[in-house]
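Reading a protein record of the kind used here takes little practice once its layout is understood. The reader may check this reading against the record printed directly beneath this paragraph.
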Amino acid sequence: MNSRLAVALAVSLGLPAVAIAQPTARTADTRAVQAVLQQYKAAIEKLDARGTERLFTSDAQIFETGGSEGTYASYLSRHLGPELAAFKSFKFSDYKVSVRFEGPVALATESYRYRIEPKTGEIAERLGVATSVLKKVGGSWKILSMHGSARRPRAS
């Protein structure tokens, strides 16, 4: 149904036109949130986090496997950047994402598998999950908070 027809139908039924138009806006917002998460995931797989700061608010907080990493800038300089430099490859698989909205924020839940091949040492394969809170800043969705955890898959 096109938007004009939807608004006309809403008005004829005595419904606010905004109630009909909102799902389209949320669909676009859902895609935009998914794109932010995809860009971050792609940077990790390229082992190059340069520019990912734009995906986060300046005060974004990062939590990983039971610990607080502080702001994204701190996490990038002290943890993620050095970690990516030590990897030969990082690949995600079985990736799934779910996005829902609570007022002005988006809540995203991701599940995935990943395989890390370090430059030296043992390959790590894990099951991971992440929960992110995003908000729109200047017309773009940005990550406000991210919490990730992982565990070894159970032996089959």
